[in-house]
Amino acid sequence: MALTPGTRIGPYEVVGSLGAGGMGEVYRARDAKLGRDVALKILPAAFANDPERLARFDREAQVLASLDHPHIAQIYGFQESGDLRALVMELVDGPTLADLIAVQRKQRRDFTEWPMARLSIRRVWYQ
Description:
Shape: globular
CATH architecture of the domain at 8-92: 2-Layer Sandwich
CATH class of the domain at 8-92: Alpha Beta
Low-confidence stretches: 117-127
Helix content: 10-25%
CATH superfamily of the domain at 8-92: Phosphorylase Kinase, domain 1
Largest sheet: 6 strands, antiparallel
Strand order of the largest sheet: 1-2-3-4-6-5
Structural class: alpha+beta
Strand content: 25-35%
Radius of gyration: 16 Å
Number of strands: 6
């Protein structure tokens, strides 16, 4: 279920799409209450009634809430609106991991040569 700019989920207004993957779609949204941009990871509608996928989504939220590391996006909360479930996360601006890999390939470098400080795990969340 693709969300369009202007769609509201609780206090969050979708600004645009950031990416999609097997476990969800990620959108840039504006938090109207706190006046900041966030990332909303939406559970796909196809999984909304799948108890196993719902449990996995809930576990992801719990794991993220238990972590505190500069290279892992923080979770701000969990939002439900009708059948829609979303993780509200820190928005990390910058290139995606795919973008970084593409640059390295153009320079004919193997990504395994990168110093770990150049890899940002939090970029993966938006891929």
